[in-house]
């Protein structure tokens, strides 16, 4: 059979050599035009895909920046906010397999365009509750609200409060209770985020594989790195937009801002969270337009016309059946469905793919949980406002991630790193990144001094039951509620939960300018015989906290860069160790696993763990526990960073296993070639010999059963 094939090839070459010589100029000209057409088409798609990545990253990061705003606006705990955040992944879960498998055989650009429209619809839906629910009401004693009636915070005798003012205040609360009793508007946020997840599904598996199919092989890593780098600009603008909206009051345009008695630094402040979603929805619509005009297929580069697999893939993939080159246009839906289970079995028989998948799942659990609650961590640990937190993350932290991802792609191209090198680079970035994360344990702030919670009314550290310690001799004559959260800052630098619990007898002014006098509990810490005054709002954290926050930012930026360097090598490792016609399917399964086993549970159990560190819960108007007002800083630091580090360490062990399997599959000769700057284990020299020599190692281990091809 081989002799017959050689004779046919020799006969064909002898009869066509003259024709080739005569048309050499024409061939060179057509090849040049085809190359320009190919490069132009792939670059247009690259630009369109980059803009879509920007749009989806902007809306996704903006959601992260509004986590605390949504928590306060709907008065829900962190665990429930985690469920809302995870609903995006649930949307992906619903259709990811169908889109990644069948979408690869249909018109990929148009499917991406349709996804953008669905994604924008979900983004608009998230903002809708703002226009249907009542105005935001925060906990404030009547005396701090603009009023001509002066009311004593310490109600030693209820008769001293004018009846009309007291009735009016409680009637307002009861009206709000009746209106909110039958509403759970946060469900619309959950459904909108679910719809966002459905629309975002085709972008990654279809977009990345479209580039890898029609780009020149050595440019593939750089193009993917460019897409991911441009996508990082989305989170930069997303967090900056979150910073801007967090400074604007939630009901801006609907209420008189002069009547607002809290500032953006207050724990009850809610910014205009809904405004950013309207902007993100418009951008998503614009991003989907170009894909309706892009072709289904692009001309393949000359280097890929004679082989469906890249030079690296030829090392790992057997080509025993050429029917896989059958045109997708001739494939029927029934035939594709019939091939589904064998393709799935093929993927799960690949040890490199499975180990890399396990490492990625655990690492993404770590990263998703860390990123989701990073704004909350900074706010509670370092006493920063939501606006400043989002600004810092968007302007300092995210660019470091972008630079790291781009650096990973550039290193892959510059040094022509093979699969084994990509695994080493990915492992190294994870190891050193989580090693740097250890230092953040030493960069925390002490708990804020809150009388009755973190310190007693006598100035000692609190060790007894928190709720029972809220009452002391200094406020025993006052009629106070332990459920209120209306913090004031005493002259002694201690925060009191309310003016009533501080024992304040009188007040002057209104709104933000209210000053409380004759506060019996304020004077008990340093000068028990003398009563002092207090002002509206909590006290600032200790003097060392700003310095610790600066150290945290520096280490956080370096850690973000180090971890993100391994992003592009991880993608290349995934793409090069699977068969070419299964790339979309493999990426879809990979994305599905990340969504189900990391994206959905990580925000939930991180939120549950963070809720255990809460010292003071808010109360809903109709009863029940609301959002957390104050966290134990030390416990929050150990829970948040500890979970992140433990998960990252486990993922590193799986990355070591990936590297071990790849080393076992590579021969000493190939490692020598790699050291000399050649393609290493996936070298292009003697491709057929490479295939023959590695067949007994690869085929029986990676794919025990031959795949049923179309």
TrEMBL record:
<feature type="transmembrane region" description="Helical">
    <location>
        <begin position="639"/>
        <end position="662"/>
    </location>
</feature>
<keyword id="KW-0445">Lipid transport</keyword>
<dbReference type="InterPro" id="IPR002350">
    <property type="entry name" value="Kazal_dom"/>
</dbReference>
<comment type="similarity">
    <text>Belongs to the organo anion transporter (TC 2.A.60) family.</text>
</comment>
<dbReference type="GO" id="GO:0006811">
    <property type="term" value="P:monoatomic ion transport"/>
</dbReference>
<feature type="transmembrane region" description="Helical">
    <location>
        <begin position="548"/>
        <end position="575"/>
    </location>
</feature>
<feature type="transmembrane region" description="Helical">
    <location>
        <begin position="40"/>
        <end position="59"/>
    </location>
</feature>
<feature type="region of interest" description="Disordered">
    <location>
        <begin position="300"/>
        <end position="323"/>
    </location>
</feature>
<keyword id="KW-1015">Disulfide bond</keyword>
<feature type="transmembrane region" description="Helical">
    <location>
        <begin position="391"/>
        <end position="411"/>
    </location>
</feature>
<keyword id="KW-0325">Glycoprotein</keyword>
<dbReference type="Pfam" id="PF03137">
    <property type="entry name" value="OATP"/>
</dbReference>
<feature type="transmembrane region" description="Helical">
    <location>
        <begin position="423"/>
        <end position="443"/>
    </location>
</feature>
<feature type="transmembrane region" description="Helical">
    <location>
        <begin position="80"/>
        <end position="104"/>
    </location>
</feature>
<protein>
    <recommendedName>
        <fullName>Solute carrier organic anion transporter family member</fullName>
    </recommendedName>
</protein>
<dbReference type="GO" id="GO:0043252">
    <property type="term" value="P:sodium-independent organic anion transport"/>
</dbReference>
<dbReference type="GO" id="GO:0016323">
    <property type="term" value="C:basolateral plasma membrane"/>
</dbReference>
<dbReference type="InterPro" id="IPR036259">
    <property type="entry name" value="MFS_trans_sf"/>
</dbReference>
<feature type="domain" description="Kazal-like">
    <location>
        <begin position="468"/>
        <end position="523"/>
    </location>
</feature>
<feature type="compositionally biased region" description="Polar residues">
    <location>
        <begin position="306"/>
        <end position="316"/>
    </location>
</feature>
<feature type="transmembrane region" description="Helical">
    <location>
        <begin position="221"/>
        <end position="250"/>
    </location>
</feature>
<keyword id="KW-0812">Transmembrane</keyword>
<dbReference type="Pfam" id="PF07648">
    <property type="entry name" value="Kazal_2"/>
</dbReference>
<feature type="transmembrane region" description="Helical">
    <location>
        <begin position="270"/>
        <end position="294"/>
    </location>
</feature>
<dbReference type="GO" id="GO:0015347">
    <property type="term" value="F:sodium-independent organic anion transmembrane transporter activity"/>
</dbReference>
<dbReference type="InterPro" id="IPR004156">
    <property type="entry name" value="OATP"/>
</dbReference>
<feature type="domain" description="Major facilitator superfamily (MFS) profile">
    <location>
        <begin position="45"/>
        <end position="660"/>
    </location>
</feature>
<keyword id="KW-1003">Cell membrane</keyword>
<keyword id="KW-1133">Transmembrane helix</keyword>
<dbReference type="GO" id="GO:0015125">
    <property type="term" value="F:bile acid transmembrane transporter activity"/>
</dbReference>
<keyword id="KW-0813">Transport</keyword>
<feature type="transmembrane region" description="Helical">
    <location>
        <begin position="587"/>
        <end position="610"/>
    </location>
</feature>
<feature type="transmembrane region" description="Helical">
    <location>
        <begin position="352"/>
        <end position="371"/>
    </location>
</feature>
<feature type="transmembrane region" description="Helical">
    <location>
        <begin position="110"/>
        <end position="132"/>
    </location>
</feature>
<keyword id="KW-0472">Membrane</keyword>
<dbReference type="InterPro" id="IPR036058">
    <property type="entry name" value="Kazal_dom_sf"/>
</dbReference>
<keyword id="KW-0406">Ion transport</keyword>
<dbReference type="InterPro" id="IPR020846">
    <property type="entry name" value="MFS_dom"/>
</dbReference>
């Amino acid at each position: 059979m081989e002799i017959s094939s050689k004779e046919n090839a020799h006969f064909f070459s002898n009869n066509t050599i003259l024709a080739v010589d005569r048309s050499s100029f024409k061939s060179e000209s057509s090849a040049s035009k085809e190359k320009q057409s190919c490069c132009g088409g792939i670059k247009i798609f690259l630009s369109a895909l980059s803009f879509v990545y920007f749009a989806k990253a902007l809306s996704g990061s903006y959601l992260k920046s509004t986590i605390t705003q949504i928590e306060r606006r709907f008065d829900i705990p962190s665990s429930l906010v985690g469920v809302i955040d995870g609903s995006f992944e649930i949307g992906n879960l619903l259709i990811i397999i169908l889109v990644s498998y069948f979408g690869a055989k249909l018109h990929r650009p148009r499917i991406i365009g349709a996804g953008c429209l669905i994604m924008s619809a979900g983004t608009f839906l998230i903002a809708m509750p703002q226009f249907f629910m009542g105005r935001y009401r925060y906990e404030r004693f009547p005396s701090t609200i603009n009023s001509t009636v002066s009311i004593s915070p310490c109600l030693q005798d209820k008769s001293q409060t004018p009846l009309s003012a007291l009735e009016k205040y409680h009637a307002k609360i009861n009206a709000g209770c009746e209106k909110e009793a039958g509403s759970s508007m946060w469900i619309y946020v959950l459904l909108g985020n679910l719809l966002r997840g459905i629309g975002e599904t085709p972008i990654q598996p279809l977009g990345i594989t479209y580039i890898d199919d029609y780009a020149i092989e050595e440019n593939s890593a750089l193009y993917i790195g460019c897409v991911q780098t441009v996508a990082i600009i989305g989170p930069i603008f997303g967090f900056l937009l979150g910073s801007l909206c967090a400074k604007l009051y939630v009901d801006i345009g609907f209420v008189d801002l002069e009547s607002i008695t809290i500032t953006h630094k207050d724990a009850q402040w809610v910014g205009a969270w809904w405004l950013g979603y309207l902007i993100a929805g418009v951008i998503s619509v614009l991003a989907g337009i170009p894909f309706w005009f892009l072709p289904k297929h692009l001309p393949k580069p000359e280097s890929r016309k004679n082989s469906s697999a890249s030079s690296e893939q030829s090392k790992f993939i057997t080509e025993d059946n050429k029917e896989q080159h059958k045109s997708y246009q001739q494939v029927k839906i029934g035939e594709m469905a019939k091939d589904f289970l064998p393709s799935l079995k093929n993927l799960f028989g690949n040890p490199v793919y499975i180990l890399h998948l396990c490492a990625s799942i655990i690492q993404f659990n770590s990263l998703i949980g860390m990123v989701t609650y990073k704004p909350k961590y900074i706010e509670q640990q370092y006493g920063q406002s939501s606006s400043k937190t989002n600004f810092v993350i968007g302007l300092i932290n995210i660019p470091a991630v972008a630079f790291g991802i781009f650096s990973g792609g550039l290193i892959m191209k510059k040094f022509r790193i093979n699969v084994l090198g990509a695994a080493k680079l990915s492992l190294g970035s994870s190891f050193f990144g989580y090693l740097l994360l250890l230092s953040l344990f030493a960069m925390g702030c002490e708990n804020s001094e809150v009388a009755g919670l973190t310190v007693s009314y006598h100035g000692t550290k609190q060790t007894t039951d928190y709720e029972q310690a809220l009452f002391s001799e200094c406020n025993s004559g006052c009629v106070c509620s332990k459920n209120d959260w209306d913090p004031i800052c005493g002259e002694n630098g201690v925060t009191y939960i309310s003016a009533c619990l501080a024992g304040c007898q009188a007040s002057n002014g209104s709104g933000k300018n209210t000053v409380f006098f004759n506060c019996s509990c304020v004077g008990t810490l340093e000068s028990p015989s003398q009563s002092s005054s207090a002002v509206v709002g909590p006290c600032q954290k200790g003097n060392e906290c700003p310095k610790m926050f600066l150290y945290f930012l520096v280490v956080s930026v370096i850690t973000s860069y180090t971890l993100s360097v391994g992003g592009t090598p991880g993608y290349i490792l995934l793409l090069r160790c699977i068969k070419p016609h299964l790339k979309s399917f493999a990426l879809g399964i990979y994305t599905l696993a990340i969504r189900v086993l990391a994206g959905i549970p990580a925000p939930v159990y991180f939120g549950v763990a963070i809720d255990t560190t809460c010292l003071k819960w808010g109360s809903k108007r109709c009863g029940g526990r609301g959002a957390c007002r104050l966290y134990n800083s030390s416990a929050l630091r150990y829970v948040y960073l500890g979970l992140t580090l433990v998960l990252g360490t486990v993922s590193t062990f799986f990355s070591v296993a990936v590297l071990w399997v790849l080393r076992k599959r590579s021969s000493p000769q190939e490692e020598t070639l790699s050291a000399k700057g050649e393609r290493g284990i996936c070298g292009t020299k003697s491709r057929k010999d490479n295939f023959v020599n590695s067949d007994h190692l690869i085929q029986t281990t990676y794919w025990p059963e031959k795949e049923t091809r179309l």
